[in-house]
Write a structure and sequence with these properties.
By secondary structure, the protein is of the alpha/beta class. It folds into 2 domains: 96 residues, Urease, subunit C, domain 1 (Roll), CATH 2.30.40.10; 304 residues, Metal-dependent hydrolases (TIM Barrel, Alpha-Beta Barrel). It has 13 helices and 19 strands. This is Amidohydrolase family protein.
Length: 426
């Protein structure tokens, strides 16, 4: 099919994007065939009148766990036990896979046309990636890591990450991941908020530096980038010294760490969303302990400080919302852009650029997607209001276009309690 999107206001995804009017986006075979004047003869095209609404690139969520719903928890779950149960029979695996596919569809319907998964169930993420690409499932483009590599007692060990007890174990899992044709490798280098048992020690170093180095060297030799869960200054230093390509989450940076970022050519994936409830919600809402709330605030402030320092020192930054954590749903990525603007202090245009063109550039898919340019995939979203003025415009979409397929007025079942509590911080 050939479509002409007319009468729209274009935000192209560039760093200093401005509203463009009087232009028409031509889509042919799922790609942007051209961007022409509204006065161009559109014979042969099916016209889609955008009625003066705003059209921009689909969003790119750079930190996703597709197995998580974001449902608030009254108490911590035993994730390893739960995943073992889920993966124990063909029936429960089939049910879980259907759930994961549904969550991916929610991402797309909320305007996220590309996701980067950083820890999942078995080989579900690569399997789903391929089915979406083949057209048998509806969802966003997926850059998949499948299960991450952790250590015994480490972050997400036994659930969405394998617990490697030695370097040979870690390299064996790396080989398995490569055989599954993953797009990147994920390491769980430190603990997180819920792993810490004492105040002030979230992000405790768990993975030995020599294991980090061994995995990074082999992954790089095989052509893969390595992302790492890191929530402490020590973790940032160890990750960068030993070859990691992206720091997920982050912590307060020293001058030494800034230098390491630049020497390594690494980028930062900022994730404000998951720490915010633990840091800012009343504990009667989150059911968090005093220790968890204290550590949540340490991580929350560290992530924001890390993002500010990175931008001040020209370290590339992208956005992910660590979807799957409690209170963080598969349809709420727009909030991460809003928090980036509110707490880090960037403009709305820069937040949009970060979650579109910049993310595409840093994952080497900028020739495919991330901006409204001739030859790129027709990954587009339409909003009634101008997100340059208010990022809450992204909350309710008029249309989602993915590879040329368009969905008008997408509907998603939302969690009322989650919406009500998170809305207090807009």
């Amino acid at each position: 099919m050939k479509y002409a999107f007319t009468n729209g206001k274009i935000l192209d995804g560039s760093r200093d994007m401005q509203v463009q009017t009087g232009r028409c986006i031509l889509v042919k075979n799922g790609k942007i065939h051209d961007i022409v004047s509204d006065t161009t003869d559109l014979s042969g095209y099916t016209k889609i009148d955008l009625k003066g609404h705003y059209i921009l690139p689909g969003l790119i969520n750079m930190h996703v766990h597709l197995a998580g719903s974001g449902k608030p928890q009254k108490k911590q779950r035993d994730n390893e036990k739960l995943v073992n149960t889920i993966m124990s029979t063909s029936l429960t695996r089939a049910i879980a896979y259907r759930m994961v596919a549904g969550f991916a569809k929610d991402e797309l319907l909320s305007g996220v046309t590309t996701i980067r998964t950083v820890g999942g169930l078995g080989d579900f993420d690569t399997r789903l990636r391929d089915e979406i690409k083949a057209g048998s499932k509806i969802g966003p483009r997926i850059l998949a890591s499948n299960q991450g590599i952790s250590v015994p007692g480490g972050h997400m060990a036994g659930s969405v990450a394998v617990a490697a007890s030695s370097i040979p174990d870690a390299l064996s899992h790396l080989k398995k991941s490569e055989q599954q044709k993953v797009d990147l490798i994920k390491l769980m280098i430190t603990g997180g908020v819920l792993d810490a048992k004492e105040k002030g020690v979230p992000g405790e170093l768990k993975m030995p530096p020599e294991m980090v180095r061994a995995v990074c060297e082999k992954a790089h030799a095989d052509g893969y980038l390595v992302a790492a869960h890191v929530e402490s200054p020590e973790g940032v230093r160890v990750a960068l010294e030993n070859g990691v390509d992206s720091i997920e989450h982050g912590a307060k940076l020293t001058d030494e760490m800034v230098k390491l970022f630049k020497e390594r050519g690494a980028f930062l994936c900022t994730t404000i969303s998951p720490a915010l409830p633990y840091a800012l919600f009343d504990r009667s809402i989150t059911n968090a302990t005093e220790v968890e709330q204290y550590n949540g605030n340490v991580v929350f402030e560290g992530i924001i400080a890390c993002a500010k320092a990175a931008l001040a020192n020209d370290i590339p930054v992208v956005l992910g919302n660590d979807v799957g954590c409690p209170w963080i749903t598969q349809y709420d990525f727009w909030r991460e852009l809003y928090y980036f603007h509110k707490y880090v202090g960037v403009s709305n245009a820069f937040a949009l650029y970060t979650a579109t063109k910049r993310s595409a550039e840093l994952t080497d898919i900028d020739s495919i997607t991330g901006s409204i340019e001739k030859g790129k995939a027709a990954d587009l979203i339409v909003t009634a209001q101008n997100p340059l003025k208010d990022l809450k415009a992204l909350r309710n979409l008029e249309m989602v276009i993915s590879g040329g397929r368009f969905i008008e007025h997408p509907k998603i079942k939302k969690r009322k309690q989650v919406e009500a509590e998170l809305d207090k911080f807009l």
